[in-house]
Amino acid sequence: MKIIRIFLTLILVFTLSSFERVSSASKKMMIMIPLMSVDMVRHGDRGPTIWAPDIFKDIWAKEEIKQLTKKGEEESKDLGRYFKNHRYITHSKFLPPIASPALIYVRSTDTQRTKDAAKALLEGMFGDSSKNLTVHVKEKKDDPCFALRNNEYFYNKTKQLLIDNRPKGFAEKIKSALDYINNQYGTNYSNHSDLFKIGDALYVGRLYNKPPPQNMTEEKVDELISLSHQLYLYFPSIPARNCFSAKDSVEEIVGFFDDKIANKTKLKYILLTLHDINITAMLNFLTSKFTEKPKYNANIRFDLFQCASDGKFYVTVKYNKKTINLCDKGVICSFDEFKQLIAKNITIQCSDFSVNQDYLKAAGIIDNKEPVAQPTQP
Questions:
Q1: Going by DSSP bridges, is the β-strand pair 269-274/135-137 parallel, antiparallel, or unpaired?
Q2: Which of 14, 48, 370, 377 places its Cα 20 to 30 Å from the Cα of 343?
Q3: The CATH number of the domain where 61 resides is what?
Q4: Domain for residue 370, yes or no?
Q5: 319: helix, coil or strand?
Q6: Is the Cα torsion angle 306, 307, 309, 311 positive or negative in sign?
Q7: Domain containing 207: what range?
Q8: Same structural domain for residues 136 and 248?
């Protein structure tokens, strides 16, 4: 009996020892060494984006239009502190606590609120040493974030698609809303973009407890805000729109990663501050599943890793802390798979001037009884 107990004990010890060896080997295989991170971040709280004194007289001052608010500045600083404590500095030691331009590249779109948001976020991350960093800005004609606007053919094609293929009831509501505004305030708005901005101004006014414009009921405010929101969500249903608002940006990120792998750069961190439309386009270019407007400080994070065991390179993408599953294997893609996904999406989406009806249904713009006409392919 004693011999049997000794024998069983030896088997148990051998089994545990083997398990530990296997577990250690598995852990070693799964160790991912971070090489580079890219954050695409929307700015914080802002004022309205349209100066319409005929409508918003005595409600908004001209100097508040399009600008980052004090609240927005604090939101950006808070996000920077989160990045410092939970992503890059205190938690992971990926970046040093003193900002170094040799390791960090920062770029903003050519608007004051995104420049200010970048500076505030960096201050939250690095304190006074954030002044070591330059916030680079490209002219709009050279900025990937404005690629769609710079391509006249695709911009006009997408705009025409909106006019020709809106759900009938939705189109009538938009025209009716513009007629109401023009008749009420003596304006001459005819562009869906103007309606979107007016609805957005009303929404921002609600956030700050501003009164509604003169002679406008709260019910009408609700209606215009709702239409503005639906207009915003309509554009991601057009694959070409997403492609040409995201293609250049994602290709630039791939270029950053290529340079890192080839040891052509010492950079470890890229910060890009931009707009909600850039976030929406990128998400829908990658997955076609996001049907909500990004909130202030929404961010997409691209991480490049090298596997400790096989030396291969991998990519993960997160949106507001949640990992996006892009590849067949789930949360992590090989860098080659990631590049193939981008190339495939460019090939498929960039010439696709159709409307994704499933997206419109998910966004609540149409229901199953209201089909959207499809354009004739050129």
A1: unpaired
A2: 377
A3: 3.40.50.1240
A4: no
A5: strand
A6: negative
A7: 164-236
A8: yes
Same domain? For 226 and 250 the reply is no
DSSP assignment letter at 130: G
Q: What is the pLDDT along the chain (378 residues), one digit of tens a residue?
A: 445 444 434 333 333 333 333 333 333 446 999 999 999 999 999 999 999 999 998 999 999 999 999 999 999 999 999 999 999 999 899 999 999 999 999 999 999 999 999 999 999 999 999 999 999 998 877 787 776 666 777 777 777 776 665 566 777 888 899 999 999 999 999 888 899 999 999 999 999 999 999 999 999 999 999 999 988 998 899 898 898 889 989 999 999 999 999 999 999 999 999 999 999 999 999 988 889 999 999 999 999 999 999 999 999 999 998 999 888 767 799 999 999 999 999 999 988 888 888 888 888 887 755 555 554 444
- Backbone dihedral region for residue 54 (phi beyond 0: left; psi -120 to 50: alpha; all else: beta): alpha
Q: What is the residue whose two structure tokens read 């713009």?
A: 365
User: What's the CA gap between 203 and 201, in Å, rounded?
Assistant: 5
CA 80 centroid distance within chain: 17
Global model pTM greater than 0.85:
yes
Which DSSP string corresponds to 77-121? HHHHHHIIIIIISTTT--S-SS--TTTEEEEE-SSHHHHHHHHHH
Q: Which residue has the tokens 């705009």?
A: 159
Q: Which residues are bridge partners to 269 per DSSP?
A: 37, 104
Encoded tokens for 234? 């309509």
